[in-house]
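Lecture 7 notes: from sequence to structure.
We start with the chain below.
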Amino acid sequence: MSCLTVYKDNGVDATLVSNHFIDEYMKDANDAQLKVYLYLLRIMSANLSTSISDIADKFNHTEKEVLRALKYWEKCHLLSLDYDDTKTLVGVHFKNLSQPAEPVSRTEVSVSPSPSSTDSPENRYAKPTYSLDQLKAFKAQEEAEQILFIAEQYLGKTLSPNEIKSILFFYDRLGFSTDLIDYLIQYCVGRDKKDFRYIEKVAISWAESNITTPKQAAAIAHKYDKTVYTIMAALGKSSAPIGKEVDYIVKWTKTYAFSLEIILEACNRTVLAVDAHRFEYADGILSNWFKNNVHRLDDIKTADANYKKSKVTLGVATNSFNQFQQNDYDFDEIERKLLRN
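Predicted structure tokens for the same chain:
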């Protein structure tokens, strides 16, 4: 009996990604690192060739960002990099993940983060306590020397050790490229904010929003300047918005489609009522207005009047606090929900 030739009309147009990669490594990688790794898997499975410049052009990254992504995966022991005698990168060797290596810290400078920095999602972006040796190693890098010089030019002063540690935090823990750090400092100084506590808050908010390039940061900063920071200020917030705060604002402006004047009215009432949990409190107000078809300021007056009538109908005695609550929602119930959270 002759041998059979087994074939099919079409090849499988797919790239195999290890479950171990998805379970253990994908959650900690930034946007550029994920794109580079997955694209190289696709190139390998199709037996194609590529280059650092090709990858950079494809994803609108710099060549330095691509190289940093490759070095990150090499430190994770997912691949190894081959160089020729002139130290030019000539090959990428994917390693077998069937026997996974112990995960390592996602750094280019060896860092041992404190336990609190990795215990929970809330502390994912906590700033580590860097040692003098780590600081020295960072300053010795060519890219670090460049960004530190640029930062000093923007700020008009010599950076303190703590400020250098903040830049190391952006580079190491947040995975920012030197281009993004450059834009971060330029952006904050442009808003007349030179305090590194403020700069760190902006950096963390960008990291939480998966910002990896100056172009993305510019887009989100432009979006925030006119509306988001007005709302933040109305709630007594002077920092850049964090992820949850952005979610609330997007909900109010996009999902509920409230005008800025409606949102600011809710913010004003919130500030008069509470000192903490202001976003949650304002969301309680706006959610009730949305349910009751509030679209204009006049609608709020109607809702307040209806609330007052309902209280009178139910025989609720009025006092100075009840008179303030002339609306169609229950401030006490909102506060009870906040206390339970």
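Points to note: The radius of gyration is 26 Å. Residues 214-234 form the longest helix (21 residues).
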